[in-house]
UniProtKB/TrEMBL annotation:
UniProt keyword annotation of Hydrolase present: yes
Enzyme kind, highest EC tier: hydrolase
Protein name: adenosylhomocysteine nucleosidase
EC number of the protein: 3.2.2.9
Domain (Nucleoside phosphorylase): residue spans on this chain: 2-226
Entry keyword set: Amino-acid biosynthesis, Glycosidase, Hydrolase, Methionine biosynthesis
SUPFAM superfamilies membership: Purine and uridine phosphorylases (SSF53167)
Top-level taxon in the UniProt lineage: Bacteria
GO molecular function: adenosylhomocysteine nucleosidase activity
Biochemical pathway: Amino-acid biosynthesis; L-methionine biosynthesis via salvage pathway; S-methyl-5-thio-alpha-D-ribose 1-phosphate from S-methyl-5'-thioadenosine (hydrolase route): step 1/2
Annotated NCBIfam families: MTA_SAH-Nsdase, PRK05584.1
């Protein structure tokens, strides 16, 4: 069973419409969509925005629905200066950029009393995502690297530069590292797939509203292609 999460309606609606044998189950006012996609059994959910919502949905998918691998799909703001709207980012690892215990001499993103603060995506799922992306997009529009997450919509150049310099990130968003954190604790394989909706700069709000549908469609197409290979 494969779990698929998107934070927003726009990020999951096209996938939902493609599910065969669709069933719905409501838990904590969250609707989970069960069925098959490209012949694979899946559970799809609109998880809501932010790290807590993402953590709750990830926990329910693993504990309640017994998914054995998990994919997060959606949009993000680019922090790599070379990245453009519509490009695809595949996670190899994730960090929580808003975790700040620097007062205790720790680095930004470092989580106290955990063996790691860098959550690595599953190598097999990364390779499947990369091969699937090459079927749909030009190689120059596909990036594999670190994604950072925090409970903030980044829309200023100074913050972008800090995220890139501090974490060497490809993009930033609001859920992926929380999903990765929970999957790490449950030892569940995962990968985060993001399509760039904006460049997290002064134009981010306008760009996001304009390009979110395009970016969501790119992510959806990649998920469908991945289902043929998992």
């Amino acid at each position: 069973m494969i779990g698929i999460i998107g934070a927003m309606h726009e990020e999951i609606i096209e996938l939902k419409n493609m599910i065969s044998n669709l069933e719905e189950e409501k838990i904590l006012d969250i609707i989970f969509y069960k069925g098959t996609l490209e012949g694979k059994e899946i559970v799809l959910v609109e998880g809501g925005i932010g790290k807590v919502n993402a953590s709750v949905c990830t926990t329910l998918l693993i504990d309640r629905f017994k998914v054995n691998q998990l994919i997060f799909t959606g949009v993000a703001g680019g922090t790599n200066p070379n990245i453009e709207v519509g490009d695809i980012v595949i996670s190899n690892e994730l960090m929580e950029h808003d975790f700040d215990c620097t007062a205790f001499g720790m680095k930004h993103g470092e989580i106290p009393r955990m063996e790691t603060s860098i959550f690595k995506a599953d190598e097999k799922l990364i390779k499947i995502a990369e091969k699937s992306a090459l079927e749909l997009f030009d190689k120059k529009n596909i990036y594999t690297g670190r994604i950072v997450s925090g409970d903030v919509f980044v829309a200023e150049p100074k913050k972008i530069n800090w995220l890139r310099e501090t974490f060497n990130s490809e993009c930033t968003e609001m859920e992926g590292a929380a999903v990765a954190h929970v999957c790490h604790l449950f030892k569940t394989p995962f990968v985060i797939i993001r399509s760039i909706s904006d460049k997290a700069n002064d134009d981010a709000k306008t760009d996001f509203q304009e390009f979110v549908k395009l970016a969501s469609k790119n992510s959806k197409n990649l998920i469908v292609e991945m289902m043929k290979r998992v």
